[in-house]
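Example 331.
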Amino acid sequence: MDMATKQIRNIGVLTSGGDAPGMNAAVRAVVRGGLHYGYHVFGIRRGFHGLWRGDIDELNGQSVSEKLQRGGTFLMTARSKTFNSPEGVQKAIEMAKVFNLDLVIAIGGDGTFRGLRDLARQDFPVIGIPGTIDNDIACSDYTIGYDTAMNTAMEAIDKLRDTAMSHERCSVIEVMGRKAGYLALNVGIACGAEVVMIPEVETDFTRDVVKVLLQGRNSGKHHYIVVVAEGAGSATEVAARIEAITGIEARATILGHLQRGGSPTNRDRTMASMMGLQAIDCVRQGCYNRVIAYKAGELVDFDIEEALNMNKTITAVEIERARILAARRAP
Ligand code: F6P
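Predicted structure in complex with 6-O-phosphono-beta-D-fructofuranose:
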């Protein structure tokens, strides 16, 4: 059947990859929006793994009650290796037929979208919704979970500042982000970090770390915050280097998975809800194999192949701005 005219009655929804606060809100919107327009919606548990295994149940309006404010994903998630093979994709499509699924909506990151693309290439209609705390989906300025994770990291660093101040130490904090520095950069700006190290911009340790901290000390500072994106280095190593070179006592903290948990912020709840409804709008318009994106203040959608070929990065200007804000010159 021609993809554009394929009659969609049954929609499967799943969450895949690293969980992100707001994923529940997105699933809820897909379910409530889908039911509103007369579709049947099926929850697929544990991401693509669940599709492959037929871990699928029909959802109703009540299935998504009391989920909006919860962190994690009630559908659960997985990083499926089995699915990444032609046999895995075929088996997933066969299982989708067993459950009469006509289309799958998945919330996740790049890996999730590649899984969807593989289904789309076999003529199985899909729609992706960007959900990851890393904000590293190229086609979208925003990904579900990013705001909550930034606020969680910010609150943790504010607390670390109290103890760094009391002991006149340098607190080196490693934040998540995989290969991207969005979380680190924006948390660093919000916490007034002296130094932010991100993978997109090379750090000259002498110029960008040692010199900045010593200038701070000469200007009267007694404690320091250094934020390291996990893709740019290890907080433990950075702290040891700082202490060895400057003599400033340093402590490392790896925020780790606590950044992925917690009740989603207003921004994540509303963004996820609107993205979920936008996905249902795409289905209604017969617009398949799309990725929902937030671009220049608007919700839009892109062809999934096109979306996966896009790039985005942090510019030198953005990191320079963070450095200007952090610098305190001697009076
Ligand atoms: O993609 C989200 C993320 O939290 C990254 O920031 C991090 O590198 C990765 O997932 C950790 O993955 P896992 O939970 O599988 O260890």
